[in-house]
Amino acid sequence: MIAIDSMMVCLDLSDIDETLVRFTRTVCERLPVKKVFFVHNIKTSELSDDFREYFGDVNISDEIEGNITDIVTEHFGRATEYEVLVSEEPNTEVMMAELVKRYSVKLTLLGKRMSDKSTGALGTKLLRILPCSILVLPETASFNIANVLTPIDFSDASVHALHLSKSLADQLNLNLEIMHVYKLPTQYFPLISEEKAIRKAEEVVKGKFADLQKKHGEIAGVPYTLVRAAGKTVAERIEMQLHKREYNLLVVGLKGNNPIPSLSLGSVPTKLYNMDINIPLWFVYSEEVIK
């Protein structure tokens, strides 16, 4: 069963904040969440001399905390215990990483605008640096979740994401599907026929699925789809699969084996995050990776 002791919600004082707070309420109504931290950081570098000259000694932290509290009171109510945290630090992502460690945050909720409105740079940094799983809510996403897609590559990270997806599906009565994107060694064409290569590749992958189902019996009945990359990236094929059925949530495992933080995220999650996908994306770290 999925239970979240502490959850952090990142707010930026824009119109997406109300959406994030309402979605947080939905999460708390469907999953056991003990406490939520609504967080905003005032970057000290953004407080210009003109601002200080115009507003004087006004306590901006108190003003912002009051504004966030009003939004939470209206759109979150008393769904569960919560706290509003406003800080003034030069580096937002480092500050949030410290909060994750201090309060043992298991899940961070992050809003995302479409690419024509935002570069998504901060979100990418948070994905790389926060030592917890991250649920990304695009501004166009629906709160109604019925169908879940989990891409796997048979790594420990993707198997962990699959276990979380299965637990979520069982807990909330959702439909879960698995997909795997495979590539062919095209450098050997035309020495071997493409048809034979496809047949062999799918045979190998089906064998991996059979082994996975034997090892993890609880996923034996979950339907899976094999998709050939065929000139597309894995992320592009995943995005294309999302358009073939009305999926409402994408769950992706994050790897953390690389000691260099900027390289530990992996190319597929990075590309998926930067795409204009209009459903929530749950990027999952295992407890072992976080430790």
TrEMBL record:
Domain of life, per lineage: Bacteria
Domain UspA: 147-272
Pfam family, one: Usp
InterPro entries named in the record: UspA (IPR006016)
Protein name: Universal stress protein
Organism: Pontibacter locisalis
Lineage, opening ranks: Bacteria, Pseudomonadati, Bacteroidota, Cytophagia, Cytophagales
